[in-house]
């Protein structure tokens, strides 16, 4: 099947800072077939379904580089706390009581519906019950990278680190060959994973060619506790254990000094920046501009809905751009074009998927979104990239395709029933509130 999009503006991300007018994007089956002038597209592809998007910008679907999808069901359960208080006294007890296969599937589907409605087409997740996160991805059609969590302590999912690792490898094996779903090893954090387990993870990641996803340097407490317990900062400890490499996505990295930024660049580590969660938990201000200047690849994430509390990548992108300027005292830091790249191609690079997604280039998967810029809030329109990053809201995302499949048209989800999803969320609320 062939579909031709005719938007007002086409923002392919590659080549950098390009905005095309009077151009069309041709999708065939799951791939991008061509980008060419609108007139040529009509002439060369008369048999295609032609979709007119006269007020819209079309760009690659956004990549949420760090999330815990199922935590939508815990949204608003514990607010206005520091990370350790939030985790130890509220979230981990709630997870112990409620997290199950059903919880993870329902919560993940719900999160994916919210993310798709906001123009996110790929989620790099990290949670428990790997198979159920993967099933949620297949059910919704969202491109899903399942981070298979590893911790030293028992949960309802596994008894110990080896148990989590076995489950990770079993999930990786079970879904081999399924397009749209892949797996990474996800040690939770330096303060919940031992040296021995980190070493096993490095070896397994190499053996099975898997990426690694870990919370690192999220708070100053984490850094100080590591100096107390290990005699060094977490990043140095992970470096000594061989974890720092292009396989690694370090979520947060709020506290990084100059030497650590140089080390991240040298080792090719990717960063998932989570501005909203970092602000809400008062974790700090990540030195994103310094990292980018040093050559570190930085993508953007929402973190979970229990610490954000939205899964609104577009909103968080605006926050990231504003914060980058304030933190570096430099108004040119993270301009609109670079911000869009952060939410697309940088995320794809971090996942090792930049040959498949992250920009609108012939041969890549057709993960594409359209944003209606005709709203009162986004006029007058001088610069589409500026308007998307600084002025548009996620509710202006009108259409979403993943793998060439239309998952939202004119803001209506095509594969999911919104009323049913809301009923499920209410059911879970009653169950959790009653406990
Ligand atoms: C093992 S992955 C899931 C695990 O991580 C917890 N979590 C969610 N958000 C954060 C965060 O920002 N820092 C550290 N840990 C977080 C989640 O509740 C799960 O227990
Ligand atoms: Zn997180």
Task: Please give a structural write-up.
It catalyses: S-methyl-5'-thioadenosine + H2O + H(+) = S-methyl-5'-thioinosine + NH4(+); S-adenosyl-L-homocysteine + H2O + H(+) = S-inosyl-L-homocysteine + NH4(+). Keywords: Hydrolase, Metal-binding, Zinc. Its EC number is 3.5.4.28, 3.5.4.31. Catalyzes the deamination of 5-methylthioadenosine and S-adenosyl-L-homocysteine into 5-methylthioinosine and S-inosyl-L-homocysteine, respectively. Is also able to deaminate adenosine. Belongs to the metallo-dependent hydrolases superfamily. MTA/SAH deaminase family. The chain is α/β, with parallel strands linked by helices. It has 2 domains: about 1-60 and about 360-415, Urease, subunit C, domain 1; about 60-350, TIM Barrel, CATH 3.20.20.140. About 40% of the residues lie in helices and about 25% in strands. It is built from 16 helices and 17 strands. The protein has helices at about 40-45, 85-100, 100-115, 130-140, 160-175, 195-205, 220-230, 235-240, 260-265, 275-280, 290-295, 315-330, 335-340, 345-350, 385-390, 420-435, and strands spanning about 1-10, 20, 25-30, 30-35, 50-60, 60-65, 120-125, 145-150, 180-185, 210-215, 250, 270-275, 300, 370, 395-400, 405-410, 410-415. The strands form 2 sheets. Strands 1, 2, 3, 4, 5, 14, 15, 16 and 17 form a 9-stranded mixed sheet that branches. Helix 9 (about 260-265) links the parallel strand 11 and strand 12 (about 270-275). The protein is globular. The chain binds the ligand CSC[C@H]1O[C@@H](n2cnc3c(O)ncnc32)[C@H](O)[C@@H]1O and zinc ion (ZN). Ligand LTUXU72L binds near residues 303 and 307.
